[in-house]
């Protein structure tokens, strides 16, 4: 899963996270892979890079804010924070949890405003997710059968305004 973090200075970075059995987390930043060990003692989370020196990891609203080593980061799962409030018509973002039923387009396809890009099942109904602009599909960040949380950037459409 890709996470984006933004600190108090509005600097952001991406983190690709893989969770392995045994509470081992592997993450990739700028192409460099690092393993992180996690353990929970008395309801508190601790992390270590070497298994010897452990540091406390304090998390508040895990999906929203992460506090570590006096730094506060906003956490965004699956979409870039720099795209917030300016995704516009070229960003198809889930408004509620759902499941991708069918992809109607692929990356590189041309779309017109109002054209169905994918079908999302939410609240036991199939919803056609339509393009909000004419353009080219720049990225599809989902696959058929994938369960999504609200706020996930499913498809990016280059409408020529970026």
TrEMBL record:
Instruction: List the InterPro entries.
Output: Biotin_BS (IPR001882), Biotin_Carboxyl_Carrier/Decarb (IPR050709), Biotin_lipoyl (IPR000089), Single_hybrid_motif (IPR011053)
Name the source's superkingdom.
Answer: Bacteria
Lipoyl-binding domain mapped to chain residues: 79-158
The record's listing under SUPFAM superfamilies reads: Single hybrid motif
Q: Which keywords annotate this record?
A: Biotin
Protein name per Swiss-Prot or TrEMBL: Acetyl-CoA carboxylase biotin carboxyl carrier protein subunit
Naturally occurring in which organism (per UniProt): Peredibacter starrii
The lineage is: Bacteria, Pseudomonadati, Bdellovibrionota, Bacteriovoracia, Bacteriovoracales
